[in-house]
Amino acid sequence: MEGSVALVTGGSRGIGRAICAELARQGAAVAVNFAGNSQAAEETAALCRQLGAQAEVFQADVSGPEACEALVQAVIDRFGRLDILVNNAGITRDGLLMTAKEEDFDRVLDTNLKGAYFCMKAAAKRMMRQRYGRIINLSSVVGLRGNPGQTGYAASKAGILGVTKAAAKELAARSITVNAVAPGFIDTDMTAVLPEKAKQAMLTSIPMGKPGQPEDVARAVAFFAGPDSGYVTGQVLCIDGGMAV
Ligand code: NAP
Questions:
Q1: Which residue's alpha carbon is at the smallest distance from atom 34 of ligand 1?
Q2: E strand or H helix at 104
Q3: Strand runs (DSSP E) across the chain, as ranges?
Q4: Which parts of the chain register pLDDT below 50?
Q5: Which of 4, 37, 62, 124 is a Cys-bridge partner for 115, taking CB atoms 3.0 to 4.6 Å apart?
Q6: Res 214: pLDDT
Q7: Alpha-carbon span 55 to 199, nearest angstrom
Q8: Sign of CA dihedral 45, 141, 223, 73
């Protein structure tokens, strides 16, 4: 991975921060994207620099196509190329099917699915020219198995699996791999806000009996981003302590 340039969307916190750090540790220059939390993004970039990598922060709300195109261009303007794209930015807006609001459904789909789709589109254009690329998309066990109260989130994460597999087939001939990871229950801000009862219910469904850490996901992402996975594309790897088995 030495000499590669990586863009991690939602790199400011949680799983995204751990991915930035792991890619930095393995020698990539890192573009840390964030939506609103510039202080957290600067902390991630500082962490990457401590690990010996070049790192810069890039503000962009990935829920719009123009912003995704501008983000990818800004990274290339700064670093000269783009080898690795990690579509990690994501949100939840939980609510039961009967009461959930259309605007929440749209916001989740726009950020989690269309955000990844438009960043892939922008990155793939450049990667096709350089005939090399690694794209890794964050799905979820919820996208594979469903979860009550998360119809919109489940749709976005199931959609990620579809775009991953279709793009993998489209881009394979140019040596661009597209893979997904599907985390289960990981200790981050996203899960910290869940009610205690929901957390306990999740924990009892994990054969390993404990939540995962952001670093568990980061190491799997780094495998798909690095040289050892060159003949692997269109795959989904669950990082979930056995939850989806
Ligand atoms: P998190 O702690 O809530 O962090 C979310 C990150 O996404 C932040 O860096 C945030 O930026 C960024 N973000 C949100 N909306 C954005 C937008 N419109 N444009 C750009 N960036 C945006 O979440 P996490 O738990 O680390 O989750 C990371 C990914 O893993 C998500 O795709 C999530 O769905 C997936 N995942 C998580 C779990 C879990 O258990 N935690 C399980 C399965 C899948 P700011 O800091 O600027 O707000």
A1: 90
A2: helix 102-108
A3: 5-8, 29-34, 55-59, 84-87, 133-138, 176-183, 236-239
A4: none
A5: 62
A6: 98
A7: 34
A8: negative
> What pLDDT is recorded for position 208?
98
Q: Tell which atom from ligand 1 comes closest to the C-alpha of 110.
A: 18
Could you give the CA distance from residue 154 to residue 93 in angstroms, rounded to a whole number?
A: 11
Mind listing the pLDDT tens digit for each residue in 7-46?
A: 999 999 999 999 999 999 999 999 999 999 999 999 999 9
Clarify whether 153 is annotated catalytic.
yes
Kindly report, residue by residue over 161-190, the tens digit of the pLDDT: 999 999 999 999 999 999 999 999 999 999
Q: What residue's CA is closest to ligand 1, atom 32? A: 90
What is the DSSP code string of 15-50? HHHHHHHHHHHTT-EEEEEESS-HHHHHHHHHHHHH
- Alpha carbon nearest to ligand 1 atom 29, residue: 88
Give the pocket of ligand 1 (CB within 6 Å). Answer: 9-10, 12-16, 33-37, 40, 61-63, 88-91, 111-112, 138, 140, 183, 185-186, 188-191
Could you identify the atom of ligand 1 that is nearest to the CA of residue 63? 18
With CA atoms as reference, report the closest residue to 225 among 113, 127, 143. Answer: 127
Side chain identity at residue 154, one-letter code: A
What is the atom index within ligand 1 of the atom nearest the CA of 211? 40
> How far apart are the C-alpha atoms of 190 and 192, rounded to whole Å?
6
CA of 133 to the centre of ligand 1 (A): 23
Distance CA 141, CA 228 (A): 25
